[in-house]
Design a protein that fits this description.
Layout: E1 2-4, H1 11-21, E2 30-32, H2 37-46, H3 58-67, E3 76-79, H4 87-95, E4 99-102, H5 110-123, E5 127-129, H6 137-147, E6 154-162, H7 176-181, H8 184-187, H9 192-208, E7 212-220, E8 231-238, E9 243-249, E10 260-265, E11 268-273, E12 279-284, E13 290-293, H10 304-308, H11 320-340, H12 354-372, E14 378-379
Parallel strand pairs: 1-2, 1-3, 3-4, 4-5, 6-9
Antiparallel strand pairs: 6-10, 7-8, 7-14, 8-9, 10-11, 11-12, 12-13
Helix pairs in contact: 1-11, 4-5, 5-12, 9-12
Length: about 375
């Protein structure tokens, strides 16, 4: 693996490296880790990268790696730059024949996302989009149960993602993460809804198996002086008649990462919370609520997808890093199968790709369009 971005003090770059290292299947061998040459070199040294594979630009990295013999060059590149700098390196990597892992959102605009999809289809290369929360074992379990029809036809989806870290104007106080995430030139046309609302929307579609067809959105800037939304609410319509509510806020003071989803069908439903990730509540109309737990001995009750993505015995919490690692492992298993000429398992193929990237960018566009509209209800256009 080669990495673009993610140098010293970059939060998400370190997360990606930890995740890629969890299963000892991926080795970081080169990087263009910062646009600042000194930071790029210092970061590479701290990660023990060789000097001849420490690059100062992503263009240099991709050009020189592509020129190496097949057995020496990287297999794929991970892109962990801010949103505005996703598209160009991803497109060049695909053009040079490298598979791609990319931090969400996939691009800066929907048009860029569509161009990437076209390039992925042209090249036949793999692309992983790191929608982290789909990597949790109990999320996999919920998806299998809902899509197997255990609860009957889906009627209602509630998903919420409250955070409190932007309750003050921290972008003016030296917080680098806040500075770029609240800057339209670097983050895009939406702040909170683009950053975490997209995670909530993806989780709703992933578990339910239903796509959003229409939405009605309202966005707010609660902190005076901020350039992008920091709070929002969206009413949703899904395929097959289901309805939903999505709330995302980064000014819910005191909250951490309280992502939570509830899905209800004709017979019952599920409830899962990211801050208690090993637990899945399964609720029934005609019998007591069941508690499903990851890593337990009752394997006959858990799907192969949940078991495949579980790592530790019961009672040992599997959290954000493990979920991230599951995405990398599934991607690595799929890539290794391609290299070896074998067929990857359905469990290995279960990771977000370019199609989810396009849905995410379309969600942002449609939410902003609805918010600005006087008619409010907006067809979900892709």
């Amino acid at each position: 693996m080669g990495m673009i971005g993610g140098g010293k003090d970059a939060f998400i770059g370190a997360i990606h490296r930890h995740a890629a290292n969890l299963d000892s299947t991926i080795e970081l061998v080169c990087g263009a880790l910062s646009i600042n040459p000194e930071v790029a070199q210092d970061s590479a040294q701290s990660l023990f990268l060789p000097a001849d594979r420490t690059y100062l630009t992503y263009q240099e990295m991709l050009e020189k790696e592509a020129a190496l013999p097949a057995e020496k060059r990287i297999d794929f590149v991970t892109i962990v730059t801010p949103n505005f700098a996703h598209f160009a390196p991803a497109m060049l990597a695909l053009e040079k024949g490298f598979h791609v892992v990319i931090e969400k959102p996939i691009a800066f605009t929907l048009d860029e996302a569509k161009q990437l999809k076209q390039k992925v289809e042209e090249t036949g290369l793999l692309l992983l989009l790191t929608h982290t929360y789909s990597g949790y074992p109990m999320v996999k379990q919920a998806r299998q149960m809902v899509q197997a029809g255990e609860f009957g036809k889906v009627r209602k989806i509630w998903v919420e993602y409250p955070q409190g870290w932007l309750s003050q104007l921290t972008e003016r106080e030296g917080n680098a993460q806040a500075a770029w995430r609240t800057d339209p030139k670097r983050s895009g046309k939406s702040g909170c809804m683009g950053d975490i609302g997209t995670h909530a929307a993806h989780l709703a579609e992933y578990i339910s198996g239903l796509k959003i067809t229409d939405l009605c959105a309202h966005l707010s800037i609660m902190v005076e002086g901020r350039a992008l939304d920091d709070d929002g609410n969206v009413l949703l319509k899904f395929e097959d008649g289901a309805t939903g509510v999505l709330m995302a806020s980064q000014v819910a003071a005191g909250e951490e990462n309280a992502l939570k989803i509830r899905i209800y069908g004709e017979k019952g439903g599920i409830e899962w919370a990211q801050q208690e990730p090993n637990t899945l509540l399964v609720k029934w109309q005609d019998k007591p609520t069941q508690i499903y737990r990851a890593g337990t001995g009752y394997k006959d009750n858990l799907s192969s997808f949940a078991l495949h993505n579980s790592r530790t015995p019961g009672g040992h919490p599997e959290g954000y890093l493990e979920a991230f690692g599951n995405l990398y492992r599934n991607f690595a298993l799929t890539l290794a199968a391609r290299i070896d000429g074998t067929t990857p398992s359905p469990e290995a193929l279960d990771y977000p790709s370019v199609n989810e990237g396009i849905r995410g960018m379309a969600f942002i566009d449609n939410v902003v369009k609805s918010h600005q509209s006087t008619e409010k209800w907006t067809a979900f256009e892709v």
